[in-house]
């Protein structure tokens, strides 16, 4: 899959609300530098910048930044107002609560909630329906767009990408679900009670780093910066992860040794990491978790072999840690991935 591109499915979904309003679809696509003939080809893709231009064009025509996916809509300017308000929050937790309340006030057909259970937090999205007995098919594009918006804003606020442990969806697996692995997470769950993004609860304590100057830049670049997925490769914690990835887990230094390696005092290193809300041990634990998930998904190594590679003294310690991370055993996690893969192959 070509990086920084968007499936033509999303182009067709974005165009749906304006196709019945007698707009010149071909002219709109050409203005966004999208070949009208390509969008009917299922395997075709457009650049993230082209899709961003289309998002702005549809929003302008509908006066709705949410592609007509809600009966009330999201008037042009709502996104900017939200971002300008969020920078005054202190932590990601308070910002997420404010953002979800904002969407709940703005939209009539979706309800968003922040829930924390144990080590993990999740943004939950529930589609609301009208009168009893009139349940309609889920507006899948609305769920997809809300997740992209909310995750993108959250990552920008703290200046780094927030890894999604798993994403859940309140509808059956769509034919193009492979796109979701790039958009959301390698771990996907369908036919859930609600749509959700699940992430480590430790991120809720991160301080916000944006201000009046940076919010103006962010709004000016939107929605391209949302579509391209926000990342901050220059953060200090990101550089530590990059260093640790070059070493085997058994070679990972302790806090004192790493401070010495960086020619820093222990207090300076601790302060730098505190500023980003990422303690040294948390960075190591999250990286170890990511390596475990990759090994279980992409190798035939036994759980015992993986536990040794990850630096655990014995497999039982790895089992306890993995169950804490993922709420299931390593074996159950691997079985679930293989079952999902065999189901996709059989479709």
TrEMBL record:
GO terms for cellular component: cytosol. InterPro entries: AraC-type_N, Homeodomain-like_sf, HTH_AraC, Tscrpt_reg_AraC-type_HTH. It comes from the Bacteria. The keyword Transcription applies. GO terms for molecular function: DNA-binding transcription factor activity; transcription cis-regulatory region binding. Residues 238-336 form the HTH araC/xylS-type domain. PROSITE patterns: HTH_ARAC_FAMILY_2 (PS01124). Keywords: DNA-binding, Transcription, Transcription regulation. PANTHER family: HTH-TYPE TRANSCRIPTIONAL REGULATOR GADX (PTHR47894), HTH-TYPE TRANSCRIPTIONAL REGULATOR VQSM (PTHR47894:SF1). This is AraC family transcriptional regulator.
